Amino acid sequence: MTEDPVAVVRGAYEAFARGDVPAVLGVMDAKVQWVESSAEGIPTRGTHVGPAQVAENVFASVPRDWDEFRIVPEDFFNEGDTVVVRGRVKAVAKSTGRSMDAPFVHIFTVTDGKLTKLTNHHDTALWLEALGA
To answer: Which CATH class is domain 5-131?
Structure first.
């Protein structure tokens, strides 16, 4: 039986919230595509393939760039293997001390209980303002 896609995604958010990055990486497919904004100045910009690239290019930016960083999912929508999550990122940038409360939409594809793709949609202007970019 294939695991419920929403349960897989919720579990990943819960693991990230408690700082269990290995658990988040463990639910990713070996060839996961993690798509961030291509905007200049966004530390996680670009497409990252595989858990190692996600860890190095996305998750490692959190302690490097932010004094505080929380992802707060608010709504989960599901259609087949696609899970759409709407929520907020609440953070304080190290470089500026500026607070950020920015909306996001994450679109996940879940295949056989593994995250195979994430596309991150967020307000890049708020991120750049907080980071002083």
So the answer is: alpha beta
Residues 6+ apart with CB under 8 A from 49: 31, 32, 33, 34
Tell me the β-bridge partners of 79. Answer: 82
In Å, the largest CA–CA distance within the chain is 48
| pTM score | 0.93
Query: For residue 53, is it left (φ>0), alpha (ψ between -120 and 50) or beta?
Result: alpha
pLDDT digits (tens, 9 = 90+) for 80-126: 999 999 999 999 999 999 999 999 999 999 999 999 999 999 999 99
Name the residue ranges covered by the structural domains of the chain.
Answer: 5-131
